[in-house]
From TrEMBL:
This is Adenine deaminase. Zn(2+) binds at H9, H11, H192, D273. Substrate binds at D274. Its cofactor is Zn(2+). Keywords: Hydrolase, Metal-binding, Nucleotide metabolism, Zinc. Residues 4-320 form the Adenosine deaminase domain. The active site is at E195 (proton donor). Binds 1 zinc ion per subunit. The record marks H216 as: Important for catalytic activity. It comes from Streptomyces tauricus. GO terms for molecular function: hydrolase activity.
Amino acid sequence: MPLPKAELHLHIEGTLEPELAFALAARNGVTLPYADTEELRKAYEFADLQSFLNLYYGLMAVLRTEDDFADLADAYLARAAAQGVRHAEIFFDPQAHLARGVGMGTVVAGLGRALDRSEAVHGVSTQLIMCFLRDESAGSAMETLEAAKPYLAPRGPIVGVGLDSAEVGHPPAKFAEVYGAAAALGLRRVAHAGEEGPPAYITEALDVLGAERIDHGLRCMEDPELVDRLVRDRVPLTLCPLSNVRLRAVDVLAEHPLPKMLDAGLLCTVNSDDPAYFGGYAGDNFRAVREALGLSPERLRELARNSFVASFLEHDEERRARYIAEVEAYEFR
Ligand SMILES: Nc1ncnc2[nH]cnc12
Ligand SMILES: [Zn+2]
């Protein structure tokens, strides 16, 4: 039995495996610029975040109907469940679909259908977080929030907003107004910061956007005062170790700062980001850090416990306590 965990940093579009991409392409009459899954997989050599994003947005062309989004999410939830994920807070990128003429209603209805049955079918509780693309305008983000209004919790599945895509040159403050509007609507707030961007972007995400968790946050280690603040305020960081290697944020996994971050007292979690592209799902990321960094069973338990502490389960503390009890009772073999 795998260690129980929550996944807090997962882009649903990043779970599009080559086999499903080709199946959806055939179903929708879309021609992909790759002969087969093998050739597509060979394109998964990334120099940085942007080189990945180019492929990631391109492959989304196969996602067109409600069924496509339902099938995508259902396939992810099955894989996640098999790797011990008990709760998933799932990102999606509405602007990337709206720009292709796929409506918010189609995307959310499809994802929502898979999420609604996830607990019964996979034993995984879920929440949905919509991300704004930071390389698009602040006005576009505001229009996207407006389009999402019918699908916000408690009526719909969307509980929060996030910020993703090309980081450098797109500081968090650009989105101050839309985050303010999201907060007024009762939405939770997270933001990617400090993946490729400087530590100052992390500070800005906290101060200007009111981010409650920082996605990645890796580069906080360059600023000791920021580390002190993150430790003091128990700000969760959703780290993605295999992603960091594949997007060259770290050279090799053995040099990942995770052990130093845990030693510093940071509230770290381990997640998969875009598992179809980066070589593994949540459990694969746990296994990889255990092997490459020699993390002890108690450190792994801490990471799993942190994932539930950092999750947005305030509406169901009884559930959070149950999940944490599962972590505490877990026997490593
Ligand atoms: N790792 C990542 N960073 C920024 N934007 C993303 N969109 C999907 N994955 C991402
Ligand atoms: Zn991400």
